[in-house]
Amino acid sequence: MIFFGHIFDSTDLMKIFTKKYRLPVTFLTISFLTVFTFFFYFHVMDISVPFAEIAPDESNPFTAEQKEIIYIGIISRYPPEIIYKGYQPIMDYLNSSTNYSFELKLSSTYQETVEQLVNNEVAGAFLGTYLYIRAHEQYGVKCILKPLNENNEPYSSSAVIVKSGSSIKSISDLKGKKLALPSSESFSGKWLTDSELAQYGLSVADLDTINYFDHHQNVIYQVLKGMYDVGVVKERVAKAYEKKGIRIIRNSEKIPGPPFVVPKNADPIITKTIKEAFLKIDLKNETHRKLLQSWDSEYSFGFVEADDSDFNQLRKILRLNGRVK
Fold it and tell me: What are the distances in angstroms from CA 205 to CA 74, 161, 190, 194, 202?
C-alpha cells in the first residue's frame, strides 16, 4: 500500500496500529472487567435476595434422582427399535404411577432374559408362554399377570402365513416347502412342527427347509420376499401385515397370553407395586384407553392376574412332545 509516498505492507500497518491503540484497548479491557465483576458480585452473588424456586411436581413427590431404578426384562421377539417403541410407554406409565424408576433391559436371546431373572438383574420380565413354562420348571420363576386380547380374553395364538399370491391354501400343501420360524424358544417356533403337521399326515422330514430367525418381523420379511414359502408368527403380528402382502392360512388353538413374570425370590414390595399398577388399568377410563394406544399391541387391552395353573393344558401338550418334563 502507498501512503504519502511510502510503501507499507500489512506487517508495517499492524505494528503502527498496535502501538497507537495498545493503551486505549488495554484501558477498555480493564474497565470492562471491572464493571463485569461489580455486577457479578452485587447481582449474582447477592444472597440477600433469594433465588427463584421451581415448584415441585405435587403429582409425584419423588424426583427422578430420588427414585430407585428397577429394571424390567423383555425377550428379543422383536428388533430393539420396535421393542422400545412399544414397551417404553409401558415403563413411562409405571414411572408415573409408582415411586420407582423403571427401565427396560433388553437381551439378544430369549434365554438371556431368563438368566437376567435368575440372577436378579431384573425385577420382572415379559416372557413368552412356552418360555415361561420351561423357566418355571427349571428356575421357579413366577407368573403374576397375563394380558387380555381385544375380546377381553387372556389368550393369544399363532398364525401360519404365506404370501398373498401363494398357491398354498392349507397345511396339507406344505410338502416340499421352505418354512421360516421365529425363535425355537417361542410357542410360534414349535407349534407347527411339534403337533400341527402330524394332523395333516406330514412330518418335519416332508419339508424342504426349516430355518429359525431372530424376530417375528424377520419371518414376515422372508415370506414377503419369497425366500420362504410359509412362516409362523404371533397372530397379532400376522394381522398387522395382512394388507401388506401376507395371508393367514391357519391359526393355532388359543393359549394363555405371554405372562409377566418375576424371579423365584422376587422382592414382594416391588412385585406388589407392579401388579397393582397394571391391574388398575381400566378400559372404561378414556385416559387409560388413550394411554394404551401407544403400548405394544400385545398389552394394549390391559391385564388380569395369572396363576401357574393357567398353563397346565399347554403344559400337557408340551409334555407329550417331550418339550418339558
Answer: 33, 20, 15, 12, 8
Residue in the block written with cell 400341527: 196
The whole-angstrom separation of Cα 324 and Cα 147 is 23
Q: Which CATH superfamily is domain 158-252 in?
A: Periplasmic binding protein-like II (3.40.190.10)
pTM, two decimal places: 0.77
Q: Work out the pLDDT band at 31, boundaries 50, 70, 90.
A: low
| Terminal-residue alpha carbon distance, the chain | 98
How much is the CA Rg of the chain, to the nearest whole Å?
32
At the fourth CATH level, the homologous superfamily of domain 68-154+257-320 is Periplasmic binding protein-like II (3.40.190.10)
| CA 43/CA 39 separation, integer angstroms | 6
Q: For residue 213, what is its C-alpha cell?
A: 430367525
Residues 6+ apart with CB under 8 A from 35: none
